[in-house]
Structure formats: structure tokens, C-alpha cells
Design brief:
The chain has about 160 residues and is mostly helical. The chain has a domain at about 95-155. The protein has 4 helices and 2 strands; from the N terminus they run ααββαα. The chain has helices spanning about 30-45, 50-55, 80-90, 130-150, and strands spanning about 60, 70. A two-stranded antiparallel sheet has the order 1-2. Strand 1 and strand 2 form a beta hairpin. The longest helix is centred in the last third of the chain and has 23 residues, at about 130-150. The chain starts with about 30 loop residues before the first helix and ends in a 5-residue tail after the last helix.
Length: about 160
């Protein structure tokens, strides 16, 4: 529901300009209803900002505060993918799983037994390196936030 019906955006290169030559007229009442429902959801979730206007906000990123790189959501930036990936890996936060609270440890995570279509039929599991690589960054941040809240004796 968070993807717009019109104009449709490329799911990977959503920061590119939408295709304004695509047919914009709904072909049925059901399609018209989906268009208006989608528009209402976007107004609610994005505070009246249109979803195709959010793409440009993700065009550039900076990991170290010095270098500004294309974010990778444009077809033009796909050419230098390996260079940007190397910069990302060099400048991202350091993950130290040994300092985590036990609840964040890899052994504590549930493995979903069914294959996931989004993963090309692989199981959703922390034992899949591609999944764990992304999860461990989020878990490092969660661990840091929890430790900071404990140190500050935060009321939550």
C-alpha cells in the first residue's frame, strides 16, 4: 500500500524521475478506487508529501560527513556500485557482537522454516550471511541505544 499507483515508481531505482509517459487513466472502477485509496494513505503516512517526491531525498548519502555519494537508487549510480559499496563498508559503524546484550546475540534469533520468495527461495534465517550482514548493523544500534538508556536511567 505504500507504493503509489500513479505515477508508478521503479522498486529499485525509485529516486529516478517517474515515467510520465505511462498510461495514467485508470481502466476500471476498481483501479480508480485503488488510486484514491493509495492517495489517501500517502497523504496520511507522508504528511501530504507525495511518494514520488520522497525519492530525491534518498539520492545522496554521506557516511563520514565528508564524502557525498549517490545513494544507489538511480540507474546512473548503478555503474559505480562496487566503489560505493567499498566506501559504505569502510565508513559504516563498527559492529562488535561480543559487546552485545545476550538478547541480541545471533543464537537467540528464531529461524523461519519456510522459504521466502523475496530471498530467491532461501530460508529467512540469521544463518544466511546476506540477512545477518544487514541485521547485525541494526542490532548494534539497538544495543547502543539500550545501553545509553540504561546509563541515563531513562524512564522507559
Amino acid at each position: 500500500m505504500l507504493t503509489p499507483r500513479r505515477p508508478s515508481l521503479d522498486p529499485l531505482y525509485y529516486a529516478d524521475e517517474p515515467d510520465h509517459n505511462a498510461p495514467v487513466q485508470p481502466q476500471s472502477y476498481l483501479e480508480l478506487d485503488r488510486l484514491f485509496t493509495s492517495e489517501q494513505w500517502h497523504k496520511f503516512f507522508f504528511c501530504t508529501i507525495k511518494s514520488w517526491q520522497l525519492g530525491p531525498l534518498n539520492r545522496f548519502i554521506s557516511f563520514n560527513g565528508r564524502d557525498i555519494l549517490p545513494a544507489g537508487h538511480m540507474k546512473a549510480s548503478a555503474v559505480n556500485k562496487t566503489i560505493h559499496e567499498a566506501t559504505f563498508k569502510a565508513d559504516r559503524i563498527d559492529v562488535d557482537e561480543n559487546r552485545w546484550f545476550p538478547l541480541f546475540q545471533k543464537s537467540r534469533w528464531f529461524d523461519y522454516a519456510q522459504p521466502a520468495a523475496e530471498l530467491g527461495g532461501k530460508r529467512w534465517s540469521v544463518d544466511v550471511p546476506e540477512i545477518w550482514e544487514h541485521m547485525r548493523i541494526a542490532l548494534e544500534l539497538a544495543d547502543r541505544m539500550l545501553k545509553a538508556m540504561i546509563a541515563e536511567k531513562h524512564p522507559l
